[in-house]
Specification:
The complex is a heterodimer of chains A (673) and B (394). Chain A is mainly β and 673 residues long. Chain A has helices at residues 19-25, 45-50, 56-60, 448-452; strands spanning 41-44, 66-70, 78-82, 90-94, 97-98, 117-124, 141-147, 158-167, 171-183, 186-197, 202-208, 214-221, 227-240, 243-257, 272-287, 292-309, 317-337, 340-355, 364-378, 381-397, 408-424, 433-444, 464-478, 484-506, 514-538, 541-556, 580-590, 593-602, 605-606, 616-617, 620-632, 637-645, 653-655, 658-659, 664-672. The longest helix of chain A is centred in the first third of the chain and has 7 residues, at 19-25. Chain B is 7% helix and 47% strand. In chain B, strands 1-4-3-2-32 form a five-stranded antiparallel sheet. In chain B, strands 9, 10, 11, 12 and 13 form a five-stranded antiparallel sheet that branches. A four-stranded antiparallel sheet of chain B has the order 5-6-7-8, with no helix packed on it. The termini of chain B are far apart. Chain B is globular and about 95 Å long. The chains are: A mainly beta (673), B mainly beta (394). At the A-B interface, strand 11, strand 12, strand 24 and strand 25 of A face helix 1 of B.
């Protein structure tokens, strides 16, 4: 056996819940540096359970630097943008393998339920863990969603967990999770969840005269926000000699209304969308000798999307899309010296998209990625560097026009990724203080919609680049005092530049005709601050809190000529990025009771980079409370949960004309056997 | 512990400061927009001339889903430009003017504004923009007036059950006094521009929702019977219609944005012939006496960019003249010309610039001799101008 080396510097304190999970993972006896050079933000175990969060997007709101675009309600689209670089620059990984959407690059985090999730972590730059696929390193930021690993008490081969939630918006949400140990080296889980909500909620718009008296005040009910979804997930976790593997299947089927913008004379929309997502993925890790470890990942995904606009006042649309993704990756890590490791990863991916749209481009994309990374520890300084290359080979048909024969286009695009990550303990004998920093250049490839969407697509697009510089400090105190347990502070300053940003530009003379172009430029200056503390003022009473604050100036540098007056866009704050935002959560655990309070704040924003009063969007902030009680019975455990969200019933919007729900509640009961 | 305490105090003070800055950044009630008038740099009150307009309204489109259609007013007597006069005159209008303003017109003392995505036509007093009522017309596009009626095109007519899902368009006949729809005349797919001449309505059918099968026809409707008299084939994807002083009908075609270029046709009903056609992109037209002014911004796939184009056509000789205002230095700053209007008495030329179509646009004023007068920020996507005459303002 080789003793694991502590090449990476920061070891996040293991939450009690994740001990078993760590055990399963670390069954692979390894000489590898298992931690990230720069730690990410993390929510896991009990912390996740305590939040009144239904889906991954709800939880990501508590991370600093992350902005959620939320179109409202249970079924509304929720995407995340980290450090203002745009949601396409964030890689989202489900059990270690990237979720993809070659069609528009958009991952709707509102669809990923927390029911089967045990940890969510967000990394700026990348998860700077050496043993990784090329894809892990390819985006400007990475969000990891990790599903629950089975844990078994001695001599108990079966775990069962059932839960039922009922709440506002007509929500009914039963779920089931089964964990079974087939043998010492093989276990499996099955998780299923059904969600049904009518999505109806009251919203209110109000305007006042300058003297404060009401000019108009109207209340309506949000319509067409219903959703019905079924998720079934099954996984096998196994061990082999010197290694482990995991295989999982995921199925999601949903039918939802698209609530749409509320505008004058239009209080209801009728567009609908059906989605069916299926994927199978696997991971195998195995040691090859003392100094060499190998990892193989694969994925096959098939996605179906049906969009219908039956509204006869608009253009009737009834389109269906099918996407296929095949992904395979091989990574090999070697120990060159005890303090020096290197990893080489090669990934291949195939994407296709077809549609019922007349004259559709039917694009096919082959992606080949390679990444070489290495980390080295020198005293109290650890560093990691990586270099990668991505090449995409696209094939598509020219748009059909009349009876003219269609031509087949082929196009290759290549882009490079480079990153350097440092973590330093300045005081040799004091591990509490750390200085870290990174610089990274990445890109995002244009999506199929960017390139080929009817009329709007621009097949000559280049990749969009993001360059990031970050420097930060972290300080942690572990107290011996009986009251304070620990306190941790982290502060990061960063500067990002996005160039060749792919944005829609009007084509010719109508606002209805746009084309994607590489003409955007954004410069971002930001600060992320996090604080976390835990105390036990009385025996058995645990109190803790977490604060995340973000300051950002994200300036539009696209058009230097547009600076003639206040309405100019040059150096204006880009759309929907608040200067100040933050989240605060506090919890108290006492015996069988758990109480959680959370506060989310998003400051004033503008809905476009012309920062004039007409384009100003109000700040919004919500207070949520969760109370739960755990009742252990002889053979099982019952848990009751009550949530009250948006306590002060704030009527707010995240996106202009998409009203968000006011005060809402949810009750849940679960049984663990 | 001793070392740690000051650090904790410092940390706590930082937290408090952060918390304080948060509480200061609270929500407040949103006030109805009451913008004051402002003088564009270089703008002076215009001398009042008999039978000359006393001002004009400008309709800003606003992008789809933004609910940012708005009306601005330029007052010749004061030289003041006022943004958003609609909310000022109607602060109690729920959700303001609406989503995507397409066309504005003054007729018999009333101001009419087509609000496309709010599926309505807003009717106001021309004198002060005060709301009188609205006409609900789904997907309404353009209007023309004749006698006591307004004729308004709509994409949203009866649905044809055939291989594809297709929906014919129609022209609604609206009584301008009661604001009631009295009749419908079905035309072809996605009718846009409409004009009145010699007792007939001329309607440009676009077929814009059927890019593989654009419409090519101009529907001619007899006003007396309100039925389609005939259809004349011109070019694909027709857009705007204007009648000249001799009764000839000018129709613009958008082309297919790829191989078929935009065109401008002159159809002469007297001879039932196309009297002339020009390779001109006319996405906005203004008829002034025997001059037709057009602006456009055609997109080229060769350069992957749009180029502003401006034309002036002598409608009696059917020849293109070089517009004088092209000489002004400020003229070259217009990025995306979107609308043109000419003061019929003073001869001043107004051109709007939609810019990047997301942010507020500009209005440029040029004198008849081509010299630059002033420019002014407008709302998002300034789309249509209507002059106000003294008799309509009483």
């Amino acid at each position: 056996m080789v003793v694991p080396l502590r090449a990476a510097a920061e070891v996040p304190p293991a939450a009690p819940d994740s001990v078993a999970a760590v055990l399963l993972d670390s069954l692979v006896v390894t000489a590898s540096p298992q931690q990230s050079t720069i730690a990410g933000q993390e929510l896991s175990g009990k912390e996740l359970d305590r939040l009144s969060a239904l889906n991954v997007a709800d939880a990501v709101r508590y991370f600093s630097g992350a902005q959620i675009k939320d179109y409202g309600g249970v079924g509304g689209v929720k995407t995340v943008d980290v450090r203002s670089m745009g949601s396409n620059h964030l890689g989202v990984f489900y059990d270690g393998i990237a979720l993809g959407n070659a069609q528009n690059g958009q991952i709707d985090l509102g669809r990923y339920s927390l029911d089967n999730v045990e940890q969510i972590s967000l990394y700026n730059g990348q998860k700077s863990e050496l043993f990784a696929t090329a894809k892990d390193l390819a985006s400007a930021g990475a969000l990891y969603i990790r599903t629950r690993r089975p844990k078994f008490a001695d001599g108990k081969p079966l775990n069962l967990h059932v839960s039922l939630r009922d709440g506002s918006f007509g929500l009914i949400n039963p779920s089931l999770r089964l964990e079974y140990r087939f043998s010492q080296s093989l276990s499996g889980t099955l998780s299923a969840e059904y969600t049904n909500a009518n999505g109806r909620y009251r919203f209110r718009y109000r305007r006042v005269y300058p003297d404060g008296s009401t000019a108009w005040d109207t209340t309506a009910v949000r319509q067409n926000g219903d959703v019905e979804a079924l998720r079934i997930e099954a996984a096998l976790f196994g061990r082999i000699t010197d290694g482990s593997y995991m295989v999982k299947g995921y199925f999601y089927d949903s039918d939802r209304g698209i609530p749409g913008a509320i505008v004058n004379n239009v209080w209801k929309n009728s567009q609908r969308q059906w989605d069916r997502n299926l994927f199978v993925q696997g991971n195998l890790r195995r040691r090859l000798g003392d100094r060499n470890e190998m990892m193989v990942n694969f994925k096959y995904a098939r996605d179906y999307l049906h969009y219908l606009n039956p509204d006869t006042t608009l253009m009737y649309t009834d389109n269906q899309f099918w996407q296929t993704e095949v992904y395979a990756s091989v990574a090999d890590m070697v120990e060159i010296l005890p303090d020096w490791h290197a990893n080489l990863a090669i990934d291949y991916q195939l994407n296709t998209l077809s549609s019922t749209l007349a004259g559709f481009a039917d694009p096919t994309r082959h992606t080949l990625m390679a990444a070489l990374s290495s980390n080295y520890t020198l005293g109290t300084l650890s560093m990691q560097g990586n270099l990668g290359t991505t090449t995409i080979f696209d094939r598509s048909w020219s748009p059909r026009r009349g009876d003219a024969p269609r031509t087949l286009y082929r196009r290759t695009r290549t882009a490079l990724v480079a990153g350097l990550f440092l973590n330093w303990q300045p005081l040799r004998d004091y591990a509490g203080l750390r200085v870290r920093g990174f610089a990274k250049r990445t890109f995002r490839m244009p999506t199929f919609n960017d390139l080929y969407y009817t009329d709007m697509g621009n097949a000559s697009l280049n990749p969009e680049y993001a360059t990031q510089y970050d420097i930060g400090l972290s300080q942690r105190w572990d107290f011996t005092s009986t009251i304070w347990q620990w306190l941790e502070l982290r502060l990061d300053g960063y500067h990002n530049r996005v160039s060749d940003k792919i944005i829609a530009v009007p084509k010719g003379n109508s606002q209805y005709r746009w084309m994607m172009m590489n003409i955007g430029k954004v410069r971002i200056w930001g600060l992320d601050f996090n604080a976390e503390a835990s105390t036990e003022p009385l025996a058995g009473l645990e109190i803790g809190g977490k604060l995340a604050y973000t300051w950002q100036r994200a300036m539009d540098y696209s058009d230097p000529a547009d600076c003639l007056d206040a309405a100019g866009t040059y150096k204006g704050q880009i759309a929907y990025i608040p200067e100040h935002s933050g989240a605060f959560t506090a919890f108290a655990n006492w015996r069988r009771w758990e109480l959680n309070y959370s506060f989310i704040y998003v400051g004033g924003r503008w809905h476009n980079s012309s920062n004039i009063p007409e384009n100003y969007e109000q700040p919004w902030y919500t207070h949520d409370m969760t109370l739960s009680y755990t009742l252990p019975l002889r053979r099982c455990t019952l848990r009751f949960t009550g949530e009250l969200n948006n306590l002060l019933n704030q009527q707010y919007e995240v996106i202009l004309n998409y009203p968000m729900p006011g005060r809402n509640w949810c009750l849940g009961v679960s049984l663990t056997l | 512990m001793k070392k740690i305490k000051p650090t904790i105090t410092r940390a706590a003070s930082i937290l408090l400061a952060a918390a304080a800055s948060l509480t200061q950044s609270c929500r407040h009630d949103v006030t109805v927009d009451f913008p004051g008038g402002q003088k564009p740099g270089g703008a002076d009150p215009e001398p009042s001339l008999p039978e000359a307009p006393i001002g004009f309204y400008l309709l800003n489109q606003g992008n789809m889903g933004m609910n940012k259609a708005s009306i601005d007013y330029y007052d010749y007597t004061t030289g003041e430009y006022t943004r958003n006069v609609y909310t000022q005159a109607n602060p109690d209008a729920v959700m303001a003017l609406g989503d995507v303003g397409n066309q504005i017109a003054v007729s018999s003392g009333r101001l009419w504004a087509i609000i496309n995505c709010s599926n309505k036509v807003e009717v106001m007093q021309a004198s002060d923009c005060r709301r009188i009522g609205q006409v609900d017309i789904p997907n309404c596009r353009y209007m023309a007036f004749d006698g006591d009626y307004a004729y308004i095109t709509s994409y949203a007519g009866p649905v044809l059950i055939d291989d594809d899902y297709n929906q014919l368009g129609y022209v609604a006949k609206i009584n301008t006094t009661t604001l009631q729809e009295e009749a419908r005349c079905i035309v072809r797919f996605q009718p846009d521009g409409i004009a009145v001449a010699g007792g007939r309505l001329y309607v440009a059918n676009s077929g814009g929702y059927r890019p593989n099968n654009y419409e090519k026809t101009l529907s001619i409707i007899d006003i007396a019977t309100f039925t389609v008299e005939k259809e004349v084939e011109l070019g694909i994807n027709l857009n705007l219609v204007a009648a000249d002083s001799e009764g000839k009908i000018w129709v613009s075609s958008r082309g297919d944005y790829y191989d078929v270029e935009p065109h401008l046709y002159c159809y002469d009903p007297a001879t039932d012939r196309v009297a002339a056609h020009f390779d001109i992109d006319a996405s906005s037209m203004w008829m002034d006496g025997d001059r037709l002014y057009t602006v456009g911004n055609p997109f080229s796939y060769d350069t992957m960019s749009s180029t502003p184009v401006f034309s002036c056509i002598d409608t009696s000789t059917l020849t293109i003249e070089q517009p004088q205002w092209e000489g002004a230095a400020e003229f070259s700053q217009i990025k995306a010309p979107y609308c043109i209007a000419v003061d019929p008495v003073r001869g001043d030329i107004y051109i709007t610039d939609a810019g990047n179509y997301v942010n507020p646009g500009y209005l440029y004023a040029f004198a008849a001799d081509g010299s630059y007068k002033w420019r002014q920020r407008t709302g998002d996507v300034p789309a249509s101008i209507a002059f106000l005459y003294p008799e309509d303002a009483d």
